[in-house]
Amino acid sequence: EPEVTQTPSHQVTQMGQEVILRCVPISNHLYFYWYRQILGQKVEFLVSFYNNEISEKSEIFDDQFSVERPDGSNFTLKIRSTKLEDSAMYFCASTPGLASYEQYFGPGTRLTVT
Amino acid sequence: AQSVTQLGSHVSVSEGALVLLRCNYSSSVPPYLFWYVQYPNQGLQLLLKYTSAATLVKGINGFEAEFKKSETSFHLTKPSAHMSDAAEYFCAVSNSGGSNYKLTFGKGTLLTVNP
Fold this sequence. Notes:
The structure holds 2 protein chains of 2 kinds. By secondary structure, chain A is mainly β. Chain A has strands at about 5, 10-15, 20-25, 30-35, 45-50, 55, 65-70, 75-80, 90-95, 105, 110-114. In chain A, the strands form 2 sheets. In chain A, strands 2, 4, 5, 6, 9, 10 and 11 form a 7-stranded mixed β-sheet that branches. Chain A has a 4-stranded antiparallel β-sheet with strand order 1-3-8-7, with no helix packed on it. The termini of chain A are far apart. The relative contact order of chain A is 0.34. In chain B, strands 2, 5, 6, 10, 11 and 12 form a 6-stranded mixed β-sheet that branches. A 4-stranded antiparallel β-sheet of chain B has the order 3-9-8-7, with no helix packed on it. In chain B, about 40% of the residues are buried. Classes of the chains: A mainly beta, B mainly beta.
């Protein structure tokens, strides 16, 4: 069964460093999402992406964040200058189209900023 | 704006007992509702979804949920708990009138199953 994959599974970085989190959505999906879950808190929406552009972003998704679909398969989340409070689990999700409603989630990348 | 409230951050049941996880939502338009399960160190897996068809929705692993508009609820139930059901459960709402169907999650309920 097709699945969303994410790499790395765990990333440790120092404050102020840039990180790129990578996702490979399911191949025929058109809509892509990033969510994050700070330890002990709920899963929060960061950004949605369709047709090579951001369709919606939350207030968490400030100028330090960017997303890109550099080729036909990868979907990346970049944090330019990481802060301690960026430490969280980051989930990528995709869906074939709006009519299917269900989002398929990857296993997540745990980002630890020291 | 949409929101989800999950009553009870931790629910503990005995194996074979009824599982009831509560979810109430707030949405200005007809919602789409979902329950996801997260096993330790894994991603989110869809259990079931409500998208304006039948109000009683059956999902995987014997779980079901009933959409009650008058109560703005979408509680998750399973008649008989199994040890393998121990996990964290998230209720989520999506705006049917929106343009990208982003999910808004509740804080989650950790289910413990005792032998």
